[in-house]
Amino acid sequence: MKVAVYYGPGDIRLEERPRPSVGPRDILVQMEACGICGSDLMDWYLVPRAPLVLGHEPTGIVVEVGREVEGFQEGDRVFAHHHVSCMTCRFCRRGQFTLCPSFRKTHLDPGGFAEFFRVPEPNLMLDTFRLPDSLSFELGTLIEPLACCLRAVRKARIGLEDHVAIVGAGPSGLMIAVLCQLAGATSVAISDLMPYRLEKARELGIRTVVDAREEELADAVRAETDGLGADVVFVTAPSKAALEAGLKALRRGGTLLVFAPTAPEVEWAIRPNEVFFDELTITASYSTTHLETRDAMSILLAHKELFGKLITHCFSLDRIADAFRLAKESKECLKVVVRGR
């Protein structure tokens, strides 16, 4: 079978490998579509583990079922989550599933950017489910990233009367913005440096779109909140400048949620005095869990046309190097999807 292997920055090679062997409690899936995630483009995160097969937003068709598997059969259209927790450790017992030691150890074999991938027993049992016929494989690739955003929105407890600001209008920032509006937020503002992304934000109905080249997000938010600032700020761009912009837009007593990781060497100076007297909350949301993925699918089904606007480009697996080049270098794309055939 064909697999796409990441060797380093700008070096993704299509190779031939044997199909994964299916154990008695595993399934084999033929990949139909898999999205490129922002983390697939972070070389500092990938290089230490290279060579590796990326892809953790896949959908596909079951082509082989282990003899002890129940509930799945050949021909099923499925989504499979790449990470699952053990459900028994201290982290899991406290609902901190993404901190479970097993979470990062579990993965699809060899990854989503392959003609076929094996879903191991833990992933199959906890977070693999059928796709409705009314949801395309391409839209199904949004389940995992939308679930990540849904987890962040829930963690920030967005609700009625909240004023929300978002730094970064990439796919995640836009999904968070839409979810906040669906949750009933009074106002949602989003900022970015790229005109293409700003226009896409307007197409999605985001109420306040801020061109960060010309205006401070903090100024725009305060103009809408009688000088108060945002109740919650999501920082979806992985930079120190984005963090600083987010903090400036936050009101006293507000919550800053870090959604994108910076490189390990990046340091950010925070004044504890300000955190204390303004009673600020600074938190983060990493990945997603079995609690959000099915809800994300339901949201996608209810708003297919809206979220479908996020998918701007599709490539075949044979052209995955071109797909990665576009996703990393182009200023006029959002979600790039790779099709298995």
Give a written overview of the molecule:
With 341 residues, the protein is α/β, with parallel strands linked by helices. It has two domains: 2-146 and 287-339, Medium-chain alcohol dehydrogenases, catalytic domain (Quinone Oxidoreductase, Chain A, domain 1, Alpha-Beta Complex); 157-284, 3-Layer(aba) Sandwich (Rossmann fold). The chain has 13 helices and 16 strands. It has helices at residues 43-46, 90-93, 121-127, 137-140, 143-155, 171-182, 195-203, 217-224, 240-248, 272-277, 290-302, 304-308, 320-329; strands at 2-8, 11-16, 27-35, 52-53, 58-65, 77-80, 116-119, 128-130, 163-167, 187-192, 208-211, 230-235, 250-258, 281-284, 311-316, 335-339. Strands 3, 5, 6, 7, 8, 15 and 16 form a seven-stranded mixed beta sheet that branches. Strands 11-10-9-12-13-14 form a six-stranded parallel beta sheet, with helices on both faces. Helix 5 crosses helix 6 (171-182) and helix 5 crosses helix 11. It is globular and about 60 Å long.
Largest sheet: number of strands, sense, barrel closure: 7 strands, mixed
The helix-and-strand class reads alpha/beta
Which outline best applies? Answer: globular
Proportion in helices: 25-40%
Percent of sequence in beta strands = 25-35%
- The number of domains: 2
The CATH level-2 architecture of the largest domain is identified as Alpha-Beta Complex
CATH class bucket of the largest domain: Alpha Beta
What letter string, H or E per element, gives the SSE order? EEEHEEEHEHEHHEHEHEHEHEHEHHEHE
By DSSP (H or I, 4+ residues per run), the number of helices equals 13
Looking at the structure, the CATH topology of the largest domain is Quinone Oxidoreductase, Chain A, domain 1
What's the total count of β strands? 16
Say which CATH homologous superfamily of the largest domain is assigned.
Medium-chain alcohol dehydrogenases, catalytic domain
**Which ranges are low-confidence, i.e. pLDDT below 50, for 5 or more consecutive residues?**
none
Q: Give Rg in angstroms.
A: 20 Å
Gap from first CA to last CA: 12 Å
User: What's the rounded overall pLDDT mean?
Assistant: 97
